[in-house]
Request: fold
Amino acid sequence: MEQNKKQETSMENIVSLAKRRGFIYPGSDVYGGLSGTWDYGPLGVALKRNIMQLWWKMFVEDRDDMHGVDAAILMNQKVWQASGHVDTFTDPLVEDLETKQRYRADHLLKDAGIVVDGLSLDDMTRVIKEQGIKSPNGNELSEVRTFNMMFKTTVGPVANDESISYLRPETAQGIFTNYKNVVDTFYPDLPFGLAQQGKAFRNEISPRDFIFRSREFEQMEIEYFVDPATWEESFEHWRQQVWAWTKALGLSDEHVHELEVAENDRAHYSKRTIDFEYDFPIGREELLGLAYRTDFDLNNIQRASGKNMEYTVKGTNTKFVPHVIEPSFGVERSVMAVLSSAYREDEVNGETRIYLALPAHLAPVRYAVSPLVRNKPELVAKAREVYDVLKKKYGAVMWDDNGNIGKRYRRQDEIGTPYCVVIDFDTLETDGLVSVRDRDTTEQRRLEVEEL
Ligand code: ATP
Reply:
């Protein structure tokens, strides 16, 4: 079925490689884990940072109309009351009547092949009864009810109603609450955007599918403030930018799909939403979202704070509350898409080889450098020289003299290193050139160090 089209790589392959090679480990692993949390190891953090830095460069540094912000994760509870999150940031929950385990009702329905878009809680309860849908353990299910996904905490030494706060479930509100600060200090021309990267927390009922649905994750969000008369133009602009982004991640266009979200499925404040979906190994699922949020958020803030959120067009008396186009990117889903699109298996010298065909600008290690053998001091000395030059130039360069050369190639292939540089006897005795092996083709060329 087109809807459930899966990429060839299995999720198990990705999870296993991620753990084996130090990209991503289960959170709190040594204590038996904590559901919905993941820790990035040395290579994972490098890959994740490369993705986040690429985003920052494309959408903040390379543009004249964007500014960055970095708001506190803990915010005044009024933020989440005004935004509607306290009342409506909920998912439909259903309980296994035997084991008391809880599940997302819409996920169980979807898994049973039922279209859930537009179904109310009562509708879901009815369909579950009518179709005899059971829990994954085969037990009867409770009625469907709502569950608020925000993690609640208290700030300060006294725990009472006033000290309640929440771990932010999205970075967007940290941008909206700083809109007025930035307008007052920078007075940018419209349209302009504010961008933020950072942690978000959602108490997902059933975290699943590796890092795809986590309880702690990172977002990269843009609120782009526009004159309401021109929202369509800006929406189209960001739609094209999203495609530029998926290309920059190395994702093939044929695996990225736009889903125009129907009116009755959109958030109530959104006049238009496109979900960008990707063919993950788990099937076609949301990678990121693009929404026209109108003036919903700034109006809410204006009402709840009593502060004026209007923008005065320079040199005129024209004032209005800007409207907002919001491209919202998830870091974990970007990492998962990049890993699954890069995962390859082929055959080299009669043996199966696993490698990650990562784009060079995302690879955690750009070059691995080694002497052909490690017990020849003159080879090691020359290799160290080459390593130092490359390390200074690129930073992400690894010294790797463990095991024989075949094992090194195998290890570097699995972590997606585009090039392995080897210093051999010809380097010292004949041509002064180094051997450079290409990860994808496994071909070797001899080059000057300066050519790298
Ligand atoms: P879904 O429908 O899959 O739960 P959503 O529509 O609730 O996602 P948004 O609120 O639009 O997601 O959040 C924007 C982006 O943040 C998503 O496109 C996704 O990339 C990321 N994201 C949201 N929830 C999670 C999560 N639990 N784990 C990892 N990433 C997430």
